[in-house]
Amino acid sequence: ALKKGDYVKISITDQGSGIAESEFEKIFNPYYSSKQKGNQKGMGLGLSICQSIIEKHGGAVTVESQLGFGATFNLYLPAAGAKSLAIRPPKETKEKKRIFGEGKILIMDDEAMIRKLAGEILRHLGYEAEFAGDGAEAVARYKTSMQTANPFDAVILDLTVRGGMGGKEAIQKLAAIDPNVKGIVSSGYSDDPGMTDFKQYGFSGVVAKPYTVKELGETLSAVLNGSL
């Protein structure tokens, strides 16, 4: 429930097939999609990421829909007061130093949207990002980079890849060619053993989807500095 206060409401309406009321809560779960067939089948991350971002800003997302009549999503964000609008000089904080860094990071994810988002976050944090669509490609790219003057400093591996090599198998193959590989496992399935017991599978760190800039930055910094 929203806290008492003033909010800005943004409503977005589509003319699609609509959403059953029984699915209103499910559609915000990571990897759940109401589009189960054909080319419209989604990864089920868009609404989950949207809700996470809005809630971290103190807001909320609601849905109104009826099958056959489209859907309306309402976004509520706290209204900024006069003090909030005042320009404040940036501060160098310990947190900023902790999440920003440098290095070459390989991102493996079978969803193009996630690769793009992660890449933008990493570049914002000061890192160089390269990409792979599955574990096999990640292993090949990592192996090639080891023969250059600028190898990867860490890899972020999607736990599960539909129809391809996932993070668990990939980290084993990476460790075989580089025992010092620094791998971070990432997934929306936070209760999977690969996430809860990540070190037993050979990972150095873990970050649950959807993650924030701060969460990814802190995890990556800790892994690279050996403090996790």
What is the oligomeric state here? single chain
Measured on Cα atoms, how large is the radius of gyration? 20 Å
Q: Would you count the extended β strands for me?
A: 8
User: Which segments are poorly predicted (pLDDT under 50) over 5 or more consecutive residues?
Assistant: none
Measured by DSSP, the beta-strand proportion falls in: 15-25%
Shape: globular
CATH class wording of the largest domain: Alpha Beta
Report strand order across the widest sheet. 5-4-6-7-8
Distance between the termini: 35 Å
Question: What fold name goes in the CATH topology slot of the largest domain?
Answer: Rossmann fold
Structural class determined from secondary elements = alpha/beta
| Share of helix, binned | 25-40%
CATH homology group of the largest domain: Response regulator
What series of H and E elements makes up the topology? Answer: EHEEHHEHEHEHEHEH
What is the typical, i.e. mean, pLDDT?
Answer: 86
Q: How is the main sheet built?
A: 5 strands, parallel
Domain count: 2
Detailed description of the structure:
The protein is an alpha/beta fold. It has two domains: 7-78, 2-Layer Sandwich (Heat Shock Protein 90); 94-224, Response regulator (Rossmann fold, 3-Layer(aba) Sandwich), CATH 3.40.50.2300. Helix content is 32%, strand content 20%. The chain is built from eight helices and eight strands, in the order E-H-E-E-H-H-E-H-E-H-E-H-E-H-E-H. It has helices spanning 46-56, 82-85, 94-99, 112-125, 135-145, 167-177, 193-196, 213-224; strands at residues 7-14, 60-65, 71-78, 104-108, 128-132, 154-158, 183-187, 205-208. Strand 7 (183-187), helix 7 and strand 8 form a beta-alpha-beta unit. The chain is globular and about 55 Å long. The model has no long low-confidence stretch (mean pLDDT 86).
